[in-house]
Amino acid sequence: MSRLTHKQIFQHIQNGLIASCQPVDDGPMDTPEIVAAMAQASVIGGAAGLRIEGVENLKATRPTVNVPIIGIVKRDLPDSPVRITPFLNDIEDLANAGADIIAVDGTLRPRPVDLESAVKKIHELGCLAMADCSNLEEGLYCQKLGFDIVGSTMSGYTGSVVPEEPDYQLVKDLKAAGCRVMAEGRYNTPELAKTAIEIGADFVTVGSALTRLEHIVGWFADAVKSAK
């Protein structure tokens, strides 16, 4: 498919659900063919866009769907806690594989490539730039640098204990500051996803509750066991 214009991308995903098709690492569903199938099923179900991790997964998915795709690459680095699209060559690979939006870790932590260079590279390659942030300070910094979308993606994931609830306040604060906001992180029921839009998010990403079968089955299995 030909690349959508930036205006078309935003028109397509505004107030919409983004399905994050990221299977459990090294699990039985962790293959490009299955990720592409997850993506197609998500679009049939009504997803306005997709979030796809990995260049090979993106290459397999891009020809099968006509909705906007957020592309990321996850890496475990020895000298940085930043995992999401840490290198400029990752950005290039994602753009070449057909990503419409490229997301990077937007936290203010030690990183191999500064955020200013990352957003510049994304825009040079004709893609929209998204920053996965953990707090308001980071979101405002990324907004100032020119990121097109600011996500609450990393809220709760930079410390030791992960909260159970989504960070509604961060979504509200980012929106009040004039950001285009992606609500992401623990929006794992239809009601929570609906709330995200009601409180001001422009779009909401849901992952585990849609595409990580091991997690979903585990939730039900644990609940059933607790009834004994």
UniProtKB/TrEMBL annotation:
GO terms for cellular component: cytosol. GO terms for biological process: carbohydrate metabolic process; N-acetylmannosamine catabolic process; N-acetylneuraminate catabolic process. The keyword Magnesium does not apply. Pathway: Amino-sugar metabolism; N-acetylneuraminate degradation; D-fructose 6-phosphate from N-acetylneuraminate: step 3/5. It is an enzyme of class 5 (isomerase). One of its GO terms (molecular function) is N-acylglucosamine-6-phosphate 2-epimerase activity. Keywords: Carbohydrate metabolism, Isomerase. It holds the Pfam family NanE. It catalyses: an N-acyl-D-glucosamine 6-phosphate = an N-acyl-D-mannosamine 6-phosphate. Its EC number is 5.1.3.9. CDD domains: NanE (cd04729). InterPro entries: Aldolase_TIM (IPR013785), NanE (IPR007260), RibuloseP-bd_barrel (IPR011060). Coiled coil: none annotated. It comes from the Bacteria. Converts N-acetylmannosamine-6-phosphate (ManNAc-6-P) to N-acetylglucosamine-6-phosphate (GlcNAc-6-P). Belongs to the NanE family. NCBIfam families: PRK01130.1. This is Putative N-acetylmannosamine-6-phosphate 2-epimerase. It comes from Rodentibacter ratti.
